[in-house]
Amino acid sequence: MEIDAITVKALRQSKGWTQQHLADACAISLRTVQRVEKEGSASSETLLGLCAVLEVEQRNLLQIPIPERHQMQQVSLRAQSIILVIAVVCGGCIGAAIMYLLIS
Length: 104
Prior knowledge:
DNA binding; mainly alpha; transmembrane; membrane; single chain; Cro/C1-type_HTH
């Protein structure tokens, strides 16, 4: 998982803790704390431990990547309209079939 390394370090320092103190409190290795603060990568278990010890929610530590413009796929208005029509027709057919089965 991608974690905001700067936030982790700032929270640790605001408590006056060393990296070793944070590692001991989270029951993780010193190397893991160093990796989190340098690279911003951690397992979900490490994230949960950090959140509990630093008393913050996961969303405060997670770093959500913003997709680049070329990565975002744009769906045309025409395609959206076609999908909507198909969904309405399928929903109507399924609803009609259920009503037919219930009445007979």
